[in-house]
Amino acid sequence: MYWWSIFVVVRFCQETIPCQPGFSSDNFVFTVHRERLQRGKILGRVDFDICTDQNRFLFICDDNRFKVEIDGTIKVKHDIKLHHGRINFSIHGWHSVGKKITSRVTVEYQRPHHTGHELNDQTESQNIQMFPHPSSGLKRYNRQWVGHVFDIPENQRAPFPKELGPMESLKSKNSTLHYSITGPGADLPPVGLFIINRDSGLLLVTEPLDREKQSKYLLTVHAAFINGTSAEDPMIVIVFVVDENDNNPEFISNTFIGNVNEGSQPGTSVMTVTATDKDDPTTDNGMFKFSVLSQTPPVPHPQMFTIDQDTGTIRVISAGLDRENVSEYTLIIKVADMKGTGLSNTATASITVLDQNDNAPQFNPTNVKNAVDFEVVRLIVTDNDERHTPTWNAKYRIVKGNDGGNFGITAEPDSNDGIVKTIKGLDFEAKQQYILLITVENEVPFSTPSSTSTATLTVTVEDVNEAPVFSPPTLSVPVKEDVPLNTFIATYQAKDPDIEMKYYIGNDPAGWLNVDKESGIITVKQAMNRESPFVKNDKYTSLIYAYDNATGTGTLVLLLEDVNDNGPVVDVVGDVHFCNQKPPPQEFSVVDPDFVGNAGPFRAELLHEARRNWAVSMNDTENKIILSMATQLPPAEYQIIVRAYDNGNNYQDTTLKVVVCDCTGDKIHCPKAGNPAIVWLAVLGSLCAVFALLNKYIEDSDPMAPPYDSLLVFHHEGDSLNQWGTRFKKLADTYGGEDE
């Protein structure tokens, strides 16, 4: 079987003119009137000349969605959609000496003009742009030397060599020719992969090809007369190795390590895994998808995590990550080619849940019955061998009666006594008595036949009043923060095999909850608020007690879901300072205690008189308001009320104290004068003292003079301190003398 395509070379006669080998343009532009291009559509033709009588050429396109015929016609190989209105790619041709020449091709979408007729493929094809070569004139064509392109599948089976096709020159009909081949794969490494029959020109491949080693071979075929002179120009032969899905995609690591904070919200990124595939990435053989096969442990939900099938990013998909319950998750992840249906591989993703301070410290009551590492008894043995040697050191084993692994026994180094301790807590309600069979040997075997010493130990479990045990120890319940009073939250009960119990609220820091003493039903007592300081990471934690002469404790965690119940505020600390001449705008952050979905984007407006002299707008990118001075203002203090709205139209007003100073631009300079109120108080105090003395003098000298109180009317609104002084001097001159 032959894998080849013939590219007919045309020789032509024309006038001798200066010729520049290559494409007639550095960039060919083809205009189409549809965004979707169907397979087989002709875009147009490019013109190419190498300054010989050859007019059929071998072209390669670097975009596998297109192909270039030997006459320069460009066709669509696969259905395409022009997402951004254009596609750019390169095409390559070869000079007769094997030099590669490149040009760019641009395919542009242009909306058609409406003429009352529907545009179809036939009418559109009438507008194909053709690019003629600058040389023109009548040409006479004769078929001559032939060029080839071969598509050979990789991994072919024996027998070898396999025939690709004849490279015969038409001149061989009249003369004896000898053929040879050069290039990588022929006379260059890998040498001998391709050979050619010296007499017939038959091209052969000698062994299986591997696309992952080399995907393309560029060979040159030579035809010569028997005297050694060239019969034809060298001919380019290109062999493309067709990909086979013979490689599994592989993760770059067998284990990926990541971590995530407990309480993380759905959508939180954990890590990104990466894989590779040696097959052709432009085909389904090399296109792979990711998926999660399993999660261990499958709690509190079997799908706590998901993976982006294209990027490999692992994210949290469910709420409820709690390090105190599960500190580590193991995911088995899969990568498969053929877009997820072909060859595959797996890896492990280990995710550590990082601790957050979401649990209050508690005292843990203990008792003998449930104690672990409680010493039950000491077994005493005697051994006449030398003390503290392997022949004396005892080795104890419990050989019977310890099926649950509740007990362990060790040798006390100094005395050699066997110390029996509890490894697990004992439960009187489950089992009241254990009979243990214990053997003792030395660390080394006996030198003479001896029987193994045994002991039978009977352990009787004493009953004690156990504290009730909540199931589960920590109960997490999702609930909206604005649920009405008396809303049912959960039924949280404890188990106690001894007697019945009563339920109480143990620790409810915000006083939001109520528990029914008999049933353990928990309801809402006061309005809840996710933004409360008692809520950490959207979790409100309380303790529930069950009492039956002993107290059991359960932890109730409310996973509060946010509602839009807060308006945004402008975050400003202290006074705001502006110059009154050419001041730049100033930005201030907008803060909303609600969660992201119930906060921004924000908008803002000014209230009352501030609208005349000030303007406000939003910087949506950074959730900031922009305050600017609309008109030049005299230096003074101004109260500006800004009303900020969230995306649910909840609003809150913020009053800004703006100090306008006599300065320019952003070089704010406000004189640090003394406090005006203190200055005026000092002045008034001095004046009052003077007035008192003056009034006394006037009364003594002129009983008909106006009283002291009436003298205060000399002040008029708007008077400066200098005007006060002038009036006061006149008053003193009127009632006093030169010395007074």
Describe the structure.
- This protein is mainly beta and 740 residues long.
- 8% of the residues lie in helices and 40% in strands.
- The chain contains six helices and 52 strands.
- The strands form 16 sheets. Strands 1-14-20-19-16 form a five-stranded mixed beta sheet, with no helix packed on it. Strands 3-12-11-7 form a four-stranded mixed beta sheet, with no helix packed on it.
- A hairpin with a 5-residue loop joins strand 51 and strand 52.
- It is flat, with a radius of gyration of 48 Å.
- It starts with a strand and ends in a 5-residue tail after the last helix.
- Residues 1-15, 115-144, 359-370, 677-683, 707-721 and 735-740 have low confidence and may be disordered.
- It comes from Erpetoichthys calabaricus (Rope fish).
Ordered list of secondary-structure elements with their pairings:
Elements: E1 5-11, E2 22-23, E3 27-32, E4 36-37, E5 42-45, E6 48-49, E7 60-61, E8 66-68, E9 73-76, E10 80-81, E11 86-94, E12 100-109, H1 121-125, E13 129-130, E14 142-153, E15 162-166, E16 177-182, E17 194-196, E18 202-205, E19 216-225, E20 235-242, E21 250-251, E22 255-261, E23 269-272, E24 275-276, E25 289-296, E26 305-307, E27 313-316, E28 328-336, H2 337-340, E29 344-354, E30 375-379, E31 394-400, E32 407-411, E33 418-422, E34 433-442, E35 453-460, E36 469-470, E37 474-480, E38 488-491, E39 494-495, E40 502-507, E41 513-515, E42 521-524, E43 539-547, E44 551-561, E45 569-571, E46 576-581, E47 586-591, E48 603-606, H3 610-613, E49 614-619, E50 624-629, E51 636-645, E52 651-664, H4 676-701, H5 708-711, H6 721-735
Parallel strand pairs: 3-12, 5-13, 14-20, 22-29, 37-44, 46-52
Antiparallel strand pairs: 1-14, 2-6, 4-10, 5-9, 7-11, 8-9, 11-12, 15-18, 16-19, 17-18, 19-20, 21-24, 23-27, 25-28, 26-27, 28-29, 30-33, 31-34, 32-33, 34-35, 36-39, 38-42, 40-43, 41-42, 43-44, 45-47, 47-50, 48-51, 49-50, 51-52
